[in-house]
Specification:
By secondary structure, the chain is an alpha/beta fold. The chain contains 9 helices and 22 strands. Helix 7 links the parallel strand 14 and strand 15. It binds zinc ion.
Length: 378
Amino acid sequence: MTKVYTNAHIFTGEGEIENGYIRFSDEIIGVGKMEHYTKQVEDEEADLRGHFIVPGFIDVHSHGGYGVDNMDADAGKISDMTYKMLEEGITSYFPTTMTQSDENIEAALKAIDKAASMNPMIQGIHVEGPFISKKFKGAQPEEYIRVAQLDTLKKWQELSGERIRLITYAPETGEVSEFEEYCQDNDIILSAGHSGATYKQLKESKATHITHLFNGQLGLHHREIGVSGYGLLEDGVSVEMIVDGFHISEEMVKLAYKTKGADGIQLITDAMRAKGYPEGESELGGQKVIVKDKQARLSNGSLAGSVLTFIDAFKNMMTFTGCSMLEAVKMSSFNQAKEFNLASKGQLNPSFDADMVVLDEDLTVKQTILGGNINEFN
Ligand SMILES: [Zn+2]
């Protein structure tokens, strides 16, 4: 049996079909306009009139949710938590670690490797810190911050089953050229973040990605455009954005969209343990966090990750900037798949994985399909 969804508004990644069909098993078999559709004997049809179908979202920066943090280093819990993200429309996930002792980071990397061996959603690991700037630490605990150490990273890459694909670092904190070369040779994208680097320092670095643009970095100044300015200005540099309305003001989100364009932006959640749970007390990196009014903060008032769901980031981006849904799709999956070479993800075209989200006209997630398996939500 193959499934066919008919009469849907389909976003294939780079394009859209207003009244189309999509035929799939575990991968996409065919997609096109309804006028070109002919039912085959093996087809099991469902009419999706009034619905949108978009590629499954890819979150490259998130620490956890649903009561679990990757730093808990529990493979079973990490895998279960990842499946809960289907409800937000996420089908690919890069579990993100944070600044901690070597022992804790190593335990987390091993657990994520184990989780990834049983969970098809996990596509790589994002190591956020500890090679960052104390001055721009945000919610990363200061006592574990240090200069970039190549030997340590090599060891971690091995322990993780070679799954590290993204590292947040501060290029200005020490001699990093060998560290950067190793990353480039091993398919690890270098992301400047929690960094006070100047534009000049970044031009000399090999960073091609910016961790949560505007947050935890040297911001825009008219004589020194810093990390944020570098991210906005340089072609070939992708920027992550936390579009929850708290980490970045609506106007700044709009300014970034107008400057950078949809092709250079990747929505992330940077979610922490409390996402999907009632508000109240929680924890991040061994620090107490209070979640109130959809904001997670340390006792000093610093934002401590988010409780943002991916579908809300997707909707907020359109509301704040007026961007088209096709552009929101690019910022939610297509761009990530391209940058991280996820060859079968981020598009709904033949031979791509059947990873997709069905949204109703209010953009509520009705179904998330992972490798052809349908998960229904209300
Ligand atoms: Zn983070």
